[in-house]
Q: What sequence folds into this?
């Protein structure tokens, strides 16, 4: 009986852990002089927002409110290629101390809970993260920001450089994800802002790593603004969804009264349905211009009063009607504040999840939406497949010739996707990497639910063409 009670207790504890994931703070906070996590060596669940990605290697997550001990490095190649900035993720894996760097590794499962969340930023002074000091442990994995700094050294052979603010204490930066162009960093030059995630190396200590050029702003003016179109994480075919056009702060002294944005879409998968200014910074409707095919849209705004905001703000809302399943991009091509062209532009996305137990299959090429291509000319076929079960699914994509003979199997694997949709390509070669002859072929998609073992399938034709001699 005692053994049964202990087993039930262990199961209860395990279920409790699974039902109540840890935060980054829970894993990172320690009073141990070694800096080791109290969960070192344990398999746990953690939840956080993706703050930075080193594709093909790992990524960082942070607690929603930021602060000390609020960040964590996730060392897992496959998951790093599946998440995006702003994703709220739930991960199951192991806490590990790798040369005194707390890592979350051996990820066995992950779930994207929500998308397009604000990146938690913790503003600190360079004296809070002094170069070479062990006192910076509390910022390990945290996305930090330094304001009004000066460059104190140019990048060394390892891409490391030093900065300091008015405190005079130096902190170190690194080029893990972004390498500033040669000559960008000049000793004693002032910068408005630098930010990045804090990494640790046993030889150099704690360093912040910018993700891209937008994490290093030299001059605080309108030209250095950032414009983003948001993501619609759960759209439905045929329904209207709204995407925000978001601007970084706008100072009153800049006197900005006009903006113009141009974006484009694929009208075969989504239709632009207008805009809305209710609850935005725009006080009147902009002038709208739409191309004849509905692919390119421009909005031009002008008013007497200046556009002013102390924080990120919604300029205008764009309306779209998705026509198909999948991840639909909204490409922000150009943006101007008055006569200033803004270079920091971020595209939007509409995610239309599959809500039916089906085998979704869509074939196209880079040249057209048709399933006709010429592999001999290095053309490829895009294969999009999916089902409602998403990450619980296993997919097999097979190519048959007109006689029903199996010639290739481009896909045979489990997959994970926030929409239930995955894309791959096929180069028109058989299983022995030989180019197939021109003719009619068939793409067969079989998708099975790994929990219920139910299978769904569909078939679409493919034509391999050749140029006339």
A:
């Amino acid at each position: 009986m005692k053994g049964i009670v202990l087993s039930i207790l262990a199961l209860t504890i395990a279920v409790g852990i699974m039902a109540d994931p840890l935060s980054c703070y829970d894993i990172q906070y320690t009073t141990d002089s070694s800096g080791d996590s109290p969960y070192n060596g344990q398999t746990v669940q953690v939840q956080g927002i993706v703050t930075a990605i080193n594709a093909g290697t790992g990524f960082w997550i942070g607690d929603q409110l930021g602060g000390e001990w609020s960040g964590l490095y996730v060392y897992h190649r496959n998951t790093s290629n599946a998440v995006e900035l702003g994703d709220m993720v739930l991960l199951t894996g192991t806490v590990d101390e790798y040369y005194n760097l707390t890592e979350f590794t051996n990820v066995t499962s992950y779930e994207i809970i929500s998308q397009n969340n604000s990146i938690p930023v913790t503003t600190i002074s360079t004296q809070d993260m002094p170069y070479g000091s062990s006192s910076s442990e509390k910022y390990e994995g945290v996305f930090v920001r330094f304001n009004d700094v000066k460059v104190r050294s140019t990048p060394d052979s390892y891409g490391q450089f030093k900065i300091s603010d008015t405190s005079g204490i130096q902190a170190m930066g690194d080029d893990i994800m972004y390498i500033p162009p040669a000559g960008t960093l000049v000793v004693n030059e002032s910068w408005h802002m630098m930010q990045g995630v804090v990494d640790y190396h046993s030889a150099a200590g704690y360093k912040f790593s910018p993700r891209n050029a937008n994490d290093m702003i030299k001059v605080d003016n309108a030209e250095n603004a950032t414009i983003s179109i948001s993501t619609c994480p759960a759209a439905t075919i045929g329904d209207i969804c709204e995407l925000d056009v978001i601007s970084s702060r706008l100072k009153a002294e800049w006197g900005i009264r006009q903006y113009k944005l141009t974006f484009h879409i694929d009208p075969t998968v989504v239709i632009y349905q207008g805009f809305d200014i209710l609850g935005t910074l725009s006080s009147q409707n902009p002038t709208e211009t739409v191309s004849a095919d509905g692919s390119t849209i421009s909005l031009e705004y002008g008013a007497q009063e200046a556009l002013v905001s102390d924080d990120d703000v919604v300029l205008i809302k764009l309306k779209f009607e998705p026509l198909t399943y999948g991840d639909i991009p909204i490409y922000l091509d150009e943006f101007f504040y008055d006569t200033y062209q803004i270079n920091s532009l971020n595209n939007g996305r509409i995610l239309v999840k599959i809500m039916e137990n089906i085998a979704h299959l869509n074939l196209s090429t880079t040249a057209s939406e048709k399933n006709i291509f010429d592999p001999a000319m290095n053309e490829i076929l895009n294969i999009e497949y999916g089902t409602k079960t998403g990450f619980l699914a296993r997919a097999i994509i097979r190519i048959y010739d007109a006689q029903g003979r199996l010639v290739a199997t481009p896909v045979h694997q489990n997959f994970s996707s926030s929409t239930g949709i995955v894309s791959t390509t096929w180069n028109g070669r058989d299983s022995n990497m030989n180019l197939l002859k021109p003719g009619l072929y068939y793409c067969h998609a079989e998708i099975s639910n790994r929990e219920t073992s139910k299978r769904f399938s569909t078939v679409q034709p493919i034509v391999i063409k050749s140029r006339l001699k």
Residues 2-19 form the longest helix (18 residues). Helices lie at 2-19, 24-28, 77-80. Residues 1-19 have pLDDT under 50 and may be disordered.
